[in-house]
Amino acid sequence: MREQTPDGSAGDADYGTIGTGYSRYRRPDPRIAAAVTAALGPVGTVLNVGAGAGSYEPVGPRVTAVEPSSTMRAARPPGLSPAIDAVAEHLPFEDDTFDAAMTTFSLHQWRDPTAGLAQLRRVTRGPVVVLTCDPSRVRDFWLHAYAPQVLDTEAERYPSLETIADGLGGEVTVEPVPIPAGCTDGFNEAYFGRPERLLDPGARLACSSWSFLDPGLAARAVDHLRRDLASGRWDRHHGHLREQPAFRGSLVLVRALP
Length: 258
What we know:
Number of strands: 8
Order of helices and strands: HHHEEHEHEHHEEHHHEE
Number of domains: 1
Helix content: 25-40%
CATH topology: Rossmann fold
GO molecular function, one term: methyltransferase activity
Strand content: 5-15%
Number of helices: 10
Largest sheet: 6 strands, mixed
GO biological process, one term: methylation
Domain Methyltransferase type: 48-125
Protein name: Methyltransferase domain-containing protein
Structural class: alpha/beta
Organism: Streptomyces bohaiensis
CATH class: Alpha Beta
């Protein structure tokens, strides 16, 4: 079982440390947000679990946010409702309270994803929407050649798509989400055509998987990337990505109907 951090973060990453600059690097991308909103559909009430600073919360429906990290709750902008201090595995709501539910880039942080998904289904009358990464595709990204431990960690933390489907039950669909060039949400694959961004310590810190890497290994990985960029080696192998309008990586949108 994952231990809760001093910040109250429910998973194995301490958002009291990595969350301090999170909002500068992890700004919701409007194109990804449109996909999440479309998957939720025309609903009146939405539960957002692992809500963080409110990324991808739709405009229009009444949103109830749940977030265990005090740092992330404090980072929610004034226009959003305050988040409830709770965890996915123990949602303090009656059955069928919400029209829809969502969780984005959060499921891999839950101590018991199966229990949390069952709770989401319990409190939701309609669609449950999960923005996550397919662990079977995480290692396909070019970063694996530079920081294999980072992507190995990501692949091990993300629940499989089969686990998500089984946990939610009902009618489940999985749609790949193209990652647009210039994506404003700075997860690792968002920099598919902007490798220089990963030389920035703040950008790396905003991707929780980097926080598990030994500092010496992280320094060597970054130095390897820096040298390949300076020599032109990265561009010889991956330079076409700089002009590519979108990248199909591991990002997926899971939608489950009861």
